[in-house]
Structures are given as C-alpha cells and as structure tokens.
Amino acid sequence: MSYLGVGVSPGNVPVNHGTILRVIDRRVRLAELVLRCLICLFGVLAAVLVGTDAEVKEIFSIRKKAQFTNMKALVFMVIANGIAAAYSLVQLLRCVVSMIKGSVLFNKPLAWAIFSGDQVVAYVTLAAVAAAAQSAAIAKLGQPELQWMKICNMYGKFCTQVGEGIVSALLTSLGMVAISCISAFGLFRLYGGNNTKTCAR
C-alpha cells in the first residue's frame, strides 16, 4: 500500500493518502509558524532584558556600575539571541508567504539550507545559555576556592534582571531545538519516495 498515493485499506476501501499528507503538512507548517513567532519574541526579550540591564552602587565612595558588558558570557548571549530573533523573523516571513501561496517545500537545496541554519542557530543559542547560566551561578554563589565573592549580594536588581533574560534565552534555545526537529522532518520527508512530489500535487 502506497503511503502517499491512493492506496487500499485492509477492508478494500480506497484511501486518499494525499489528503492526509496535506493535512499533516498544514499542521506542521502552523506549528513552525507559531514556534518561530515565539522564538522571535523570546529572543528579543532576552536581548533587551540583559542588554539594558545596569545597576550602580557606591562602594567606599567609589561608584561601581554593573552592566552586561562586564561579563563576556552575557555579551555572547545577547548577540546569540539577537541573531536567533533576526533569523526567526526571516524564516517567519518565508513561512507566511509559503502558507499564503499554499506551496509545499520540494526544493532539496533550500530544505538543506533551512535545516542547516536551524541547526547552527540552535547550537549557538544553547551554548550561549549554558555559558551565561554558569557565569550567573558564579555571580550568585561565588567561588570560595578562588576567593570570588558573591556579586549578587551587592547588585541584586542587576542579577534578577539577568536571571529573567537567561530564562527567556532558555525558552528561545528550546524553541530552536523544536524547530530543528521540524526542519529535519521537512527535509528527510523529501527522501521518502520518488512519487512524493507528484502525489502531493
């Protein structure tokens, strides 16, 4: 029985698998659209929360300002989430145009490009979250062995806002992981059979 063509059920009743394929494709594209919207939203939110965060304290009559540029891991996270948001916006526009036209992706080079882009952005955002979370843990807990003090005891507001940014960045990276799975499905379904294009049309 063909998966994509008109097959025959065990009861010898004709089944149109092309219609099922179109329904699945529409649901997958809708899920991709929603996920890319969320990634764009959380990516911008993470970049803004961390990028605009600053707190000034006076220590022994010396004014000290805490900001995200003081920690390279936070700078990396802001840049990574900005890239993820911009990339998701471009892909979001592609999804909208594809849904309006009602077209299905059959271009293998384009599918490979989307899959590769999603993979790269997913890995970059995950690495950025991991680095920022480690730096935040040191700032919160300190490192007694190296005589590193707990920075968050002095800059409470700064640390709280950074924590909110890290949570948003984590949601962005998880969304990118989910999107990578969807793009993998969209790519490897093209290798499921030679008659995929004909039947879906």
Strand and helix map with partners:
Elements: E1 6-8, E2 14-16, H1 17-51, E3 54-59, E4 62-67, H2 72-101, H3 108-141, H4 156-188, H5 196-200
Antiparallel strand pairs: 1-2, 3-4
Helix pairs in contact: 1-2, 1-4, 2-3, 2-4, 3-4
Task: Summarize, please.
By secondary structure, this protein is mainly α. The chain has helices spanning 17-51, 72-101, 108-141, 156-188, 196-200; strands spanning 6-8, 14-16, 54-59, 62-67.
Shape: elongated
Reported for the largest beta sheet, the result is: 2 strands, antiparallel
N- to C-terminal distance: 19 Å
State the helix count.
5
Structural key phrases:
single chain; 201 residues; two-stranded antiparallel ribbon; 5 helices; 68% helix; disordered N terminus
If you had to describe this structure to a student in words, what would you say it looks like?
With 201 residues, the protein is mainly α. The strands form two sheets. It has a two-stranded antiparallel sheet with strand order 1-2. It has a two-stranded antiparallel ribbon with strand order 3-4. The two termini are 19 Å apart. The chain is elongated, with a radius of gyration of 23 Å. The protein has helices spanning 17-51, 72-101, 108-141, 156-188, 196-200; strands at residues 6-8, 14-16, 54-59, 62-67.
